[in-house]
Amino acid sequence: MRGLLATTMKGRMVSVCCFVSLLLLLQATAEEEEDLTSVLRDRSHIEETLRFATEEKAADYAAAVQRLRKIYHSSIKPMEQAYKYNELRQHEISDGEITSKPMVLFLGPWSVGKSSMINYLLGLNDSPYQLYTGAEPTTSEFTVITHGEKIRSVEGIVMAADSSRSFSPLEKFGQNFLEKLIGIEMPHKLLERVTFVDTPGIIENRKQQERGYPFNDVCQWFIDRADLIFVVFDPTKLDVGLELEMLFRQLKGRESQIRIILNKADNLATQDLMRVYGALFWSLAPLINVTEPPRVYVSSFWPYDYAADTSRELFKREEISLLEDLNQVIENRMENKIAFIRQHGIRVRIHGLLVDRYVQTFKEKMSFFSDPELVFKEIVDDPDKFYIFKSILAKTNVSKFDLPNRDAYRDFFGINAIVGFKPLSAQCSYIGGCLLEKIEKAITNELPALLSSINSGKQPGLSSCEATGCGEKPKNRYRKN
Fold first, then answer.
1. Which has more confidence, 265 or 238?
2. CA–CA distance, 350 with 358 (Å, rounded to integer)
3. Which residue in 78, 98, 448, 467 has the fewest CB atoms around it within 10 Å?
4. Which residues contact residue 43 at a Cβ distance below 8 angstroms, ignoring those fewer than 6 apart?
């Protein structure tokens, strides 16, 4: 009996000790949370650098967008459709893309702080709609954060079905991907001028097939449309695997938009940070083959104060420098959009000239007894024999560095019969004018004039011909007299 009583008393004492330990643990956790909230970083420099208080001239911007949209639809898209350019490049420009805000894309390995950085910039910490973060791989979706009148989430299927958004082309990647796409709308000053896209972290030991959708193709879609690309690294995750190497291959040609971020830098001592900085450059050097490497920002992008005994002033200056870089992209969004449409127009024009040259060569080589398939196969297999590309360089002001790959046209004409295209000399009408002259006018006159009107502060308007009608008969310099 005494033994049973002693055992019972001992069990109760253990229970009391466990309960007291739990209370002490909860108290310590609460004290740690209070300490964290007491050392929250001041965010006033974010609002000052990004000019939240500055009122924009919305009317002027809307007028410029409408003018740009009109130029594209009247001068570039007709040739784009006539010669099926979107089947060559797989990049069809929608109205939503023309009117969309600048896009900032966050890429990088898992758990490097991409979502925490977005939470910090938007001040979402401790709010119901903050992006979930953790030490393990947490983000498995492509998350698009945009401006809205109220806070709400939008399913990927809804985003793709809405033609007014710039994300409707994503439907081509299938339903499995749309289930991994989510949109978040919220009223925020920064989101009135920019859109953030958070991506799933790169996990090197996972096969791409396990994602259930073409991850690299989806990343390429966002990369092609991003105005600024933040590639985020953690000091403890500097190894470069196959998936990260593939990502940097996709970033070729977009080096001017890339910014490298070495996040969580306050976790290291100054000497260790210098070594990590050098190791990062050593890892990325084979992947970024340019004369001037991308800008690297070293800081810690989250709402809490920097760790003690670290380079606080350096991290603060780096953060402000990144914010100024972001603000520059926001302020130049209209100029960048015009430059993008003009570059697209140049590519469409070159494509039209090449298809026209293929059509003319085919007609010249055809005779009454010729086999059309054999004749055109000879032209497509060896275009240099018939001076297809060299004639474009000789007769036009096209740069040889802008010419597309010859093999691309073998695939293009493999699904598009040559007899389905008309030569440029037949692409004229009394009402619409000539396709080539209209696109050349847009590239050389209309788009540069729109850019000049923005830089000079003048409100873009209609040209005199568009306002009153020139009433001139279109001239066709390709038609034989």
1. 265
2. 12
3. 467
4. 123, 303
Other beta carbons less than 10 A from residue 211's beta carbon: 17
At 129, the amino acid letter reads Y
Q: How many CB atoms lie within 10 A of CB 463?
A: 14
**Residue 46 and residue 348: Cα distance in Å, rounded?**
41
User: How big is the chain, counted in residues?
Assistant: 481
DSSP for 406-430, please give it: HHHHHHHHHHS-GGG---GGG-EET
Report which of 380, 382, 385 is spatially closest to residue 355, judged by C-alpha positions: 380
Contact 113, 232 (CB under 8 A): yes
CB-based contact 161:84 (threshold 8 Å)? no
Q: CA-CA distances (angstroms) from residue 401 to 80, 330, 346, 389?
A: 21, 30, 12, 12
CA-based angle 408:413:414, to the nearest 5?
A: 95
Average pLDDT, integer, range 350-370: 90
User: Any idea which residue has 């992209």 for tokens?
Assistant: 329
Q: What's the one-letter identity of residue 235?
A: P
The pTM assigned to this predicted structure is 0.77
3-state SS class at 63: helix
Single-letter code of the amino acid located at 469:
G
**Which whole number is the average pLDDT over 411-438?**
89
With both helix axes pointing from N to C terminus, report the angle between 312-331 and 333-365 in degrees, rounded to the nearest 10: 50
**SS3 state of residue 106:** strand
What is the spatial distance between Cα 134 and Cα 112, in angstroms, rounded to a whole number?
10
Q: Which tens digits make up the pLDDT trace of 278-298?
A: 888 888 877 876 667 778 899
Rounded distance, CA 66 to CA 60, Å? 10
